[in-house]
Design brief:
The complex is a heterodimer. By secondary structure, chain A is of the alpha+beta class. Chain A is 29% helix and 25% strand. Among the domains of chain A are: 209 residues, Aldehyde oxidase/xanthine dehydrogenase, molybdopterin binding domain (Aldehyde Oxidoreductase, domain 4); 133 residues, Aldehyde Oxidoreductase, domain 4 (2-Layer Sandwich), CATH 3.30.365.10. Chain A is built from 19 helices and 29 strands. In chain A, helix 14 runs parallel beside helix 15 and helix 17 packs across helix 18. Chain B folds into 3 domains: 47 residues, Uridine Diphospho-n-acetylenolpyruvylglucosamine Reductase, domain 2 (2-Layer Sandwich), CATH 3.30.43.10; 117 residues, Uridine Diphospho-n-acetylenolpyruvylglucosamine Reductase, domain 3, CATH 3.30.465.10; 114 residues, CO dehydrogenase flavoprotein, C-terminal domain (Enolase-like, domain 1). Chain B is globular and about 55 Å long. The chains are: A alpha+beta, B alpha+beta. Chains A and B meet through helix 3, helix 8 and helix 19 of A and helix 10 of B.
């Protein structure tokens, strides 16, 4: 750690103004008045605006996927108009000479809201006659994957188990919340510094929403304190900040603070799930049905997260009949959006918890049950009943390695020993086998732009359309290009996250940077070698260590670059389809039955992300994900009261695991290369928070068992996060109502 | 999260701090470690017109043995109590069990024991410790100093007997009695969600044993009411009995039955009541074990020669 980073908050810009927002404290209501007149009088305040004050200048958030037919009835304005729909919704923006006076101005704004009934639960919202948006009900999207399963399948099956689970809302909580600084230049150019995952999309959206010329906007991503999916959007606040910077002709900065980010920034997860799983007497799965009410919050900008849960429904298992029905429902809560995992942790949790239920119903070892049902390696590419094509996998290999690494037999014996002793804390072992999607299946986004340039001094510049928000691109991309070209890594510099320097880019999300961006750089570097050979006049010449070697002589890349006024460069847009990393996680826990406290004794993760270009960086990604998964399993939930008011406004109320909560973690890998790229890498950013929660929850249920023989349902059972109170109630055999 | 405007003064003399506070008692606040007050100011839930920062008042940065009590100045930070040598014998052992469970290291480096008492969060570990030990709380105002017992000091959540023009200048913790009265054992248990969280429940137990019988019992509870409380009924049950599991279980049940815990988003009332019982029992077991090891180590703690140094 050097302290030399430059975050948006560190940038020094003369005459820079700071913005602060007035946000709704009411979840649902008619917005009668927002009076900004007193704010404008506060010393140091440059201006204060409500939606009404902005008039025709009010901008609307562009939809993530533009819809075909006219204006979206559920569109989101930069500042609320007529109606407020969640606590934290921006109502007014105040710009002042510093953040202190901007907040003084925000204090002086008077807001009058006439409350309406608040809808907090997606199931209730779907059924409610109170609609968030006039003229349209609360179900924003309904989706089906696979074909409905015949009743006969269920009736014929030897066993059917059923579970109902709740995925709480999580706050992604990067160390640095959202941050943006818009700097208008006298010549009409506009530079936007921002902590963001997709600068090219942001530039396009800012231009369309604010009526600006995209060619005159330069979006630059500063050093970033994490994103986890919550910095991929074109947010209402960003429209206000950029719009006012242009209107005032002055630099305006907004640094979201910890208090506002917890309800102002997008949340993740938020699903009510119902799962039904049928198997024959040998445990072979026959059918899986998944029903989800996905809570998309007040504005359904990114309902596609729930589609992932449905499309992936059956997970790693060879199940002939699979059907998923997904409803995306608006509620009076903070909008949800991708959060690390984005639909996969939800799917994996629903299935893996139910698989353990099936194992208990059958009296079968949960590892053995999984083994019997895995899609076998020879079945790939595997076309799933929900319409997905899985590229490659060796699921049993990962399971075996995980069981060996944790010493499964030992812990099963220890579990029995403790049960017999009767006086020791019960111990449980939980498994989770999963596959996830990395990169995107949607053709327009299944690619990335990259280029590699050689300067006459031999230095190499790599450019790529991804954008690091803490994934070590600065280390691994130069490493990759240097390795491909056979030159020292110090000769390669990386440029990304700058729309003037990169021709285009999709960005960094869905674990796509190495799989898609890295593959693009790899191919650009290979093309550069071809170009170097061509310039040397011998396309078949040998190339090694940055040098083209022909019969008579050799040319270094520097010499080839210097020999021609034409830049020595290769690059373009390279397609890479979605990939399917996988793994098995095992958790060993003990439970203090009296207090309900869970202690994770071991957490073992065996991941397969194909070829790891830099295994150390992959390991750190896994560890980070595991800690977030631990948070989801045991600590994290954004609690709302019945009025839709979030009950946490800081990190004393929204609980993150700290260093003191970290369990001993053991990592290992298997390597099944991505069959669709020469590089062979699949994504590695999200596995940790996908595999960890089900492993821990299954372990806790296992510890608190044994369940009554033949238990076929897990409805009204323990729900995430497993608070001490939840575990205490479960241990005492009481109804877990909370 | 920026505070509303406020005036600020940081005098080096206690008398100047008292004077500054007395000029605007209703709108001024005293700043010591600031770990709660400054956060609340950032949320603008606290909007003092004047902050009287006492961090320059050197005389408040002391921990001294003063007769039969440890006198803890208003600037003594939580982390000063992390080692048992901070006080002789059982008191040092108790304080060093409590301190490491207060928040996380950065908070312990700034926050103060006196500030915790003045803030009076009902789940504060130090507040429970103060009531368990019948600590004396020294308040200094324009008319001079007065000493208030911890039992009378706490009036409700974040409410105390401190007058707005008074500064909480020291805390007096009784040095736990020596050889004549018996062997003292201490215990401390708390239930928290993460190491950075406030306690949901915390229990301080101090047992004095003579000839295998409990002659004095002190139980201080945090999270069991709207303020820190003693579990008097449980204490009375313990006195005169042997420190046996049944006796502890009965005391625990009495403490839980007598508690009136507040609800919070992460735990309901019934769970908290249950936890009070569990932790009382566990803290009592700890106290008994502590008294046994104190006895075993030849009563060094009781003689006051266990490495404790005056500071």
């Amino acid at each position: 750690m050097t302290g030399a980073g430059n975050y948006v908050g560190d940038l020094k810009v003369a005459g820079c103004l700071d913005a602060a927002f007035v946000r709704s404290t009411v979840a649902h209501g008619r917005l009668l008045a927002v009076d900004t007149s007193a704010a404008a009088e506060v010393d140091g305040v440059v201006g204060a605006w409500s939606a009404a004050d902005l008039g025709d200048d009010l901008a609307f958030v562009p939809p993530f996927f533009p819809s075909a037919g006219g204006e979206d009835p559920r569109r989101c304005a930069a500042l609320a108009v007529d109606r407020v729909r969640y606590v934290g919704e921006p109502l007014a923006v105040i710009v002042g000479t510093d953040r202190y006076v901007a907040e003084d101005g925000a204090d002086a704004v008077r807001v009058d809201i006439d409350p309406l009934p608040a809808l907090v639960d997606p199931g209730e919202a779907a059924a409610s006659s109170t609609w968030l948006f006039d003229g349209v009900d609360n179900v924003a999207t309904e989706m089906e994957f696979g074909t409905p399963i015949d009743d006969e399948v269920w009736q014929r099956a030897a066993v059917v188990v059923e579970g109902a689970y709740r995925q709480p809302r999580l706050a992604p909580t990067p160390m640095e919340p959202r941050a943006i600084l818009a700097v208008p230049q006298p010549d009409g150019q506009l530079t936007v510094w921002v902590s963001h995952q997709a600068p090219h999309r942001l530039r396009r959206d800012l231009a369309s929403a604010l009526g600006l010329d995209a060619e005159r906007i330069r979006v630059r991503v500063a050093d970033s304190g994490g994103a986890f999916g919550t910095k991929s959007g074109t947010f209402a606040e960003y429209l206000s900040v950029v719009g006012l910077a242009v209107k005032l002709g002055r630099p305006v900065r907004w640094l979201e603070d910890r208090a506002e980010t917890l309800s102002g920034s997008t949340h993740g997860r938020g699903q009510n799930q119902r799962v039904r799983l049928a198997a024959d007497e040998n445990g072979r799965m026959l059918a899986l049905a998944l029903e989800v009410d996905a809570d998309v919050g007040a504005y359904p900008n990114t309902g596609f997260v729930a589609a992932e849960t449905g499309q992936a429904a059956a997970g790693v298992y060879l199940t002939p009949n699979v059907h998923a029905r997904i409803r995306v429902v608006v509620t009076n809560t903070t909008p949800t959006a991708p959060y690390r995992g984005a639909g996969r942790p939800e799917q994996v949790y629903a299935v893996e918890r139910t698989v353990d239920l099936l194992a208990r119903r059958l009296g079968m070892d949960p590892a053995e049950l999984r083994r019997r049902n895995f899609i076998p390696p020879e079945a790939f590419p595997y076309h799933s009943p929900t319409g997905r094509v899985f590229d490659s996998g060796q699921y049993e290999l990962a399971l075996d390695k995980a069981l060996e690494l944790v010493d499964y037999t030992h812990w099963r014996e220890e579990q029995q020993r403790r049960r017999r002793s009767g006086s020791e804390r019960p111990l449980g072992i939980g498994l989770c086998s999963f596959t996830e999607r990395s990169g995107l299946e949607q053709a327009p986004m299944a690619n990335e732009w990259a280029s590699v340039d050689v300067a006459p001094d031999g230095s190499v510049t790599a450019r790529v359309g991804t954008c690091s928000t803490g994934q070590s691109h600065e280390t691994v991309f130069p490493e990759l290009v240097a390795r491909t070209l056979g030159i020292p890594p110090g000769r390669v510099s990386l440029i990304e996250g700058d729309t003037d320097e990169t021709a285009q880019g999709i960005g960094t999300f869905g674990s796509r940077s190495m799989q898609v961006g890295g593959a693009a750089l790899h191919r650009a570097a290979l093309e550069l070698i071809e170009e170097a050979r061509r310039r040397a006049g011998e396309p078949d010449a040998r190339y090694a260590d940055g040098t083209v070697i022909t019969g008579q002589r050799s040319w270094t890349l520097a010499e080839l670059a210097a020999a021609s006024p034409e830049p020595l460069r290769a690059g373009g847009v390279y397609d890479t389809p979605a990939a399917f990393p996988f793994g098995t996680y095992v958790a060993v826990v003990e439970v203090d039955r009296e207090l309900g406290n869970v202690r994770v004794l071991r957490l073992v993760a065996v991941d397969d992300c194909g070829v790891a270009v830099d295994p150390e960086i992959v390991e750190d990604q896994t560890r980070g994900g595991i800690v977030q998964g631990l948070g989801q399993a045991l600590y994290e939930v954004m609690p709302y009261d019945d009025q839709g008011v979030p009950q946490a406004d800081g990190l004393l109320g929204y609980l993150l695991p700290t260093i003191g909560e970290l369990p001993p973690i053991s990592l290992d890998t298997t390597v099944t290369p991505n069959p669709n790229t020469a590089l062979g890498a699949k994504g590695a950013g999200e596995a940790g928070c996908i595999g960890t929660p089900p492993a821990i929850v299954n372990a806790v249920i296992d510890a608190l068992g044994p369940q009554p023989a033949g238990t076929a349902t897990d409805i009204g059972g323990m729900q995430l996060p497993l608070t001490p109170e939840t575990c205490w109630l479960a241990a005492a055999g009481q109804e877990v109502a909370r | 999260m920026k505070p509303a405007p406020f005036d600020y003064t940081a005098p080096a003399e206690l008398s100047d701090a008292v004077t500054a506070l007395a000029e605007r008692p209703e709108t001024a606040r005293v700043l010591a470690g600031g770990q709660s007050l400054v956060l609340e100011m950032h949320y603008r839930r606290e909007r003092p017109a004047l902050l009287v920062d006492i961090n320059n008042v050197r005389e408040l940065d002391t921990i001294t043995a003063d007769g039969d009590a440890l006198r803890v100045g208003a600037l003594a930070r939580h982390r000063a109590f992390e080692t048992p040598t901070v006080a002789p014998g059982a008191l040092g052992r108790l304080l060093s069990r409590v301190s490491p469970l207060i928040a996380h290291p950065p908070v312990r480096a700034r926050g103060t024991m006196a500030g915790s008492l003045a803030w009076a969060n009902p789940v504060s570990e130090w507040c429970a410790t103060a009531v368990a030990l019948d600590a004396g709380i020294e308040l200094t105002g324009p008319a001079g100093s007065r000493l208030v017992g911890a039992g009378e000091f706490f009036l409700g959540p974040f409410r105390t007997a401190r007058q707005p023009d008074e500064i909480l200048t020291s805390v007096r913790l009784p040095l736990l009695p020596g050889a004549e009265t018996g062997t003292v054992g201490v215990g401390f248990c708390e239930q928290h969600r993460t190491h950075a969280s406030f306690a949901q429940v915390a229990v301080v137990a101090v047992l004095t044993l003579r000839d295998g019988v409990i002659v004095e019992a002190r139980l201080g509870l945090a999270g069991a009411a709207d303020r820190p409380v003693r579990a008097h009924e449980a204490e009375r049950h313990l006195v005169g009995r042997e420190p046996e599991p049944d006796v502890f279980a009965q005391a625990a049940a009495l403490a839980a039955a007598g508690a009136d815990p507040l609800s919070e988003p992460h735990a309901g009332v019934e769970y908290r009541r249950h936890v009070i019982g569990v932790l009382v029992r566990r803290a009592l077991v700890q106290a008994r074990e502590d008294s046994e090891s104190a006895d075993f180590f030849s009563g060094a703690g009781r003689d006051g020669h266990d490495g404790w140094e005056a500071r």
